[in-house]
Design brief:
alpha+beta, 5-stranded mixed beta sheet
């Protein structure tokens, strides 16, 4: 029912691919996903509107099922919005969490279980979002981001599978990959991102939008499934 293709799908997909391919882009994980043909892109209208939320959630469910069918490493799902492109960091952060809450509500409505490997409490150090029973870490990109690594022409939400991080840890490859990203980010921005932390140290919710937040900041997210 919600499989329609956005008129800007090809253009926005090409734009994101070119951005990830650029030598200055620091995330080697995203580069690996693109090189392997596993960076899935969904084009949508506006990040500050709920218009496409059903399409996004349905696409997330398809993505999680495809991952279970073929759990190859370095797969990401990116939602690229046409606009608004003038949102400042706080406005982008509000829009990001509006979309997150809406997608979570649809996950509950559709009877999806929360990934038991993570916490649904956004203040918990082991928090991650869950869609279709799989935990995700979100990376927000937008034109007004203060960190160069988070700066992109279109508002974008990149959903990264938590399971992949755990598999990289088990293989002893996670710390090396993380260090490569930090070094590249340092080279790009002149400093390492102060918001980056390992899962289990502080809630990863603080990292999603890319905005530097203080210790008192609380994620605007409410878990609406059964108590856990």
């Amino acid at each position: 029912m919600f499989h329609r293709t956005h008129t800007a799908q090809d253009a926005l997909e090409r734009k994101l691919f070119a951005h990830v391919e650029a030598a200055s882009f620091p995330c080697v994980g995203a580069k690996s996903a693109l090189a392997r043909g596993r960076l899935t892109v969904l084009a949508c209208d506006n990040i500050d509107s709920a218009w496409d939320d059903l399409r996004i959630h349905e696409a997330l469910l398809r993505f999680t099922q495809a991952y279970r069918d073929d759990p190859a490493l370095f797969q990401s799902f990116a939602v690229v919005f046409q606009g608004p492109v003038e949102l400042d960091e706080q406005a982008f952060e509000r829009a990001l969490w509006d979309r997150v809450q809406s997608l979570h509500d649809k996950d509950v409505w559709r009877g999806q279980t929360y990934d038991q490997r993570v916490s649904a409490d956004p203040g918990n150090p082991h928090f991650s979002l869950s869609f279709g029973g799989e935990a995700f870490f979100i990376v927000g990109l937008h034109p007004k981001a203060s960190r160069p690594a988070r700066r992109f022409e279109q508002p974008t939400l990149v959903f990264n599978l938590h399971d992949q991080f755990e598999r990289l840890r088990e293989a002893g490859k996670y710390e090396g990959l993380r260090e490569k990203i930090l070094v590249r980010d340092d080279h790009l921005a002149g400093s390492r991102n102060p918001m980056l932390a390992r899962h289990g140290e502080v809630s990863e919710a603080r990292q999603y939008s890319g905005r530097v937040v203080d210790e008192d900041w609380q994620p605007p997210f409410e878990y609406r499934g059964d108590a856990k």
